[in-house]
């Protein structure tokens, strides 16, 4: 019985580690996507401020 509980805890720990890895990967790609999308408005903003 104790072996089954230990195996379950190991599986749970492994699942938590993988979920954090996936969350960091998703966060990283969201940040990259936002920088890519916002780069054009930021450049327009910089160009307008340098012309004035």
TrEMBL record:
InterPro entries: ST7. It is a multi-pass membrane protein. The chain crosses the membrane at residues 20-38. One of its GO terms (cellular component) is membrane. It is found in: Membrane. It comes from the Eukaryota. The keyword Membrane applies. Keywords: Membrane, Transmembrane, Transmembrane helix. The keyword Methyltransferase does not apply. Belongs to the ST7 family. This is ST7 isoform 21. The lineage of its organism: Eukaryota, Metazoa, Chordata, Craniata, Vertebrata.
